[in-house]
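Re: Re: ligand-bound prediction request (bumping)

Still looking for help on this. To restate: I need the protein modeled with fe (ii) ion bound, output as structure tokens. Inputs repeated here so nobody has to scroll up.
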Amino acid sequence: MKIELSKNKVLFNNGSTIQEIHPFWLRERVEGEEFLDNTTQQRLFDPSSINTEIIIKEVNIREGFLEINFNDGVNSKLKIDKIATEFSKKDTVIKSIKKIKWNSTLSNVKNYTYSENFFESKEMYDLLVSFYEYGFVIIKNVPNENNFIVNFANSIGSVRRTNFGEHFNVRSKPNPNDLAYTTLSLSPHTDNPYRNPVPCIQLLHCIENEVKGGLSTLVDGYTVTENLKKKDQDAYNILSEVKVKFKFIDKDVILEDWSELIHLDENKEFKQVRFSPRLDYVPILEKNKLGLYYKSRKKLSDLYNSKENRIEFRLEPKDLIMMDNYRVLHGRTKYDPNEGRRFLQGCYIDFDSTEGKLRHLKRKFRL
Ligand SMILES: [Fe+2]
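Reply:
Sorry for the wait, this slipped through. Here it is.
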């Protein structure tokens, strides 16, 4: 990638094509204390107030900078590296982290250990990279004080409050409004598929665990759905095309949202899975199509529930697990409340928290 000049035009050469950069695009990016606030990197002028027919009167390349004189009297130096990065259209921090597929054979995933200044440490940066690779991460030794989870979440970004409150307590209780608050096993699911938007990341902190059962289970929705795409294109297609309704009802609220079980992005690549067999309602479709849908959903469910795709482990007191709720399904095995106490606390954060923190730490450690 290269910036070139030709008769007061700035050209962008990406190796195969050369295109002229619109002068206004460059004018919007002028730097200097008159135009850009040094601390916030926010503009001090409104581009809408500038004539869009702006012309470059003179331009030179010197020591990695474009030196431009515009015909409205503004002269500025623009860093060429910065312009080239924008042209790559890539989120160079988050999207450059490649997802690693995993199943029951996953081993040697690094655990992280909580310590003082954890959230501003290089360890935190490594943790976040690992989180984007695997879709989950486990942190040991997180103080098991009541409500510490909220503190933890707010030190990465901001808690995403829901109608369950700022955080929720996972232990069996009488008259529960969700099966999570019983001692029953929970098959792999994603949380809150009925919300718009769905909370991105779930944090779950083990405060007490005296029971033999209640093991945590995780399944990588990315691995499972990518494998399904290879093995059964029809099933993959219908599950990524048909939007179903997810619904939650209690005495205070009715939440509803529609989505495909496999939600793809604009490039038809994996974006999100939602799966919660207790809460989904398929719309009425032509009978044959519904037949294919039900077969496909069962196939997906069998894959999510198969031992081959699941890892199972015990959360010990002071363990905190952070899960990508758009990628990883979670569940637990049943337990006997007569054996002792089992008490977890959970909350949600959104991707802006982890992404913002990761970019900040990358800048801080010049990585
Ligand atoms: Fe859950």
